[in-house]
Amino acid sequence: MTRFYRLLLLALLALTPVSLVRASQQNPVTLDVHAGYDDRGQYHVGHWFPVQVVVANDGGDLSGTIEWRFAGESQPAFRSLIDLPRGARKQVLLPVISVNDDRTAVLQLVVNGQALAKSVVRLNPIASDTALVGVLSSDQTLLNSLSTTQLVSGFSTELSRMAADLFPTDPMLLAGLDVMVIHDIDLTILSDAQRAALASWVDLGGTLLVGGGPDA
């Protein structure tokens, strides 16, 4: 009987470190990445576009850098410093630009020279000879016919279905849109900063088309 209990104790001791290792491997930091105008990586080649990152930290206090690197590059192209106290959940806006039709990028949180969290981001480049039309509507499928309409003379049309909560607050990040169509949307759902960015974009030459509806 004594021999049996000794063997049982040894078995339990052997299993315990494995459980501890597995628990310690759970990453306390998570990244939620929203890239491009449509949250699917869509961007106009040669123009700045928004990348919004929500960083959540369930571990101890830390400070690091959000880094963006296009596929094939050895060094990050864009960086943003971030402080993350324990339990923090922060949103970071990272302006990004590409002139090379990039289709993949890596976004990571680097702390003390080590990547603590990483996300592979798929991108959808829109060529410079195509007009990119932003659509903000209560029913995004309602305006699908716009894709066959030549809204900019001499250019084919690509639609970018935008979401109000991801609408940029910097007019520079709207510069990649040639036309914007707002349909059946109460503009009060946009923040003051978002509406100011939209107004600046129009002042800089952007074409805004507004349609009514029950929610407008």
Report what the structure shows.
It is a single chain. This protein has 216 residues and is an alpha/beta fold. The protein folds into 2 domains: 96 residues, Immunoglobulin-like (Sandwich), CATH 2.60.40; 83 residues, Rossmann fold. 16% of the residues lie in helices and 41% in strands. The chain contains 2 helices and 13 strands. A hairpin with a 2-residue loop joins strand 7 and strand 8. The longest helix is centred in the first third of the chain and has 23 residues. It is globular, with a radius of gyration of 23 Å.
Characteristics:
2 helices; 216 residues; four-stranded parallel sheet; 2 domains; alpha/beta; Immunoglobulin-like; Rossmann fold
- Main sheet: strand order: 5-4-7-8
- By DSSP, the count of extended strands is 13
| Gap from first CA to last CA | 80 Å
Radius of gyration using CA atoms only: 23 Å
Biggest beta sheet attributes? 4 strands, antiparallel
What structural category arises from helix and sheet content? alpha/beta
Reading the helices and strands in chain order gives HEEEEEEEEEEEEHE
Kindly state the mean pLDDT as a whole number?
88
> How many discrete structural domains?
2
| CATH class (first level) name of the largest domain | Mainly Beta
CATH topology group of the largest domain:
Immunoglobulin-like
Topology:
Layout: H1 2-24, E1 29-35, E2 42-44, E3 48-57, E4 62-70, E5 78-84, E6 89-97, E7 104-111, E8 114-122, E9 124-126, E10 130-137, E11 156-161, E12 179-183, H2 192-203, E13 207-211
Parallel strand pairs: 2-9, 10-11, 10-12, 12-13
Antiparallel strand pairs: 1-3, 3-6, 4-5, 4-7, 7-8
